[in-house]
Amino acid sequence: MDLYFSPLACSMATRVALYEAGAEANYLEVDPPTKKVLDDGTDFRTVNPIGLVPTLRTDEGVVLTENAAILQYVADRFPQSGLGAAEGIDRTRLHQWLCFIGTELHKGLFIPLLDRKAPQETKAYALEKNLSRLDYLDNYLKGRDFLLDHFSVADAYLVTVINWTMATPPIELAKWPNVKAYHDRLRQRPSVAKAIAEEFELYKAEQARKKAAA
Fold this sequence. Notes:
InterPro entries: Glutathione-S-Trfase_C-like (IPR010987), Glutathione-S-Trfase_C_sf (IPR036282), Glutathione_S-Trfase (IPR040079), Glutathione_S-Trfase_N (IPR004045), GST_C (IPR004046), Thioredoxin-like_sf (IPR036249). This is Glutathione binding-like protein. By secondary structure, this protein is an alpha+beta fold. Helices cover 53% and strands 8% of the residues. It has 7 helices and 5 strands. It has helices at 12-21, 67-77, 89-114, 120-141, 153-162, 177-186, 190-213, and strands spanning 2-5, 26-31, 36-37, 55-57, 63-65. A hairpin with a 5-residue loop joins strand 4 (55-57) and strand 5. The longest helix is centred in the middle third of the chain and has 26 residues, at 89-114. The protein is globular and about 45 Å long.
């Protein structure tokens, strides 16, 4: 399968999940400004017209988009990994957390803060409206190792998003000690540590390309 990604973007969650599952994949880096696939220079929008990562092409040639859907596919494709959840309420809770991370944290809180073109008023509004989501998460994680009773694709997504606090100074993670402890703990997990280290090196190369082109 092929995973189209950009370094340290939300697509890193799928890399973590694939490493956790011990799955083989081709990792194809997409340059965010140009939407070019760096491996061959092709236009990524011929694969995903919206131009957003992650995008996954399965071994059967099916193209999947949207982070939550791709993560659930990986969990179902590799059931031995334990990344998913059993049918019934456990699976619904997995869906619940994927939705929460995607809407309340990823899009609601972090995207306005990470967008360099967003007005300061927009950033201030996002903080005012959505910091309470971290309060909720901090309370939930008290005494818990994971979002469910085991490491799941929801944790792969959450640790990826929480990792963005390094680039969002208004969010001081120490204010949410349970979230910070969760993030520190999961960063030591082999699949997460490997993904972060590899993508950080790619991110530095990406920044160097931008500087050279400026």
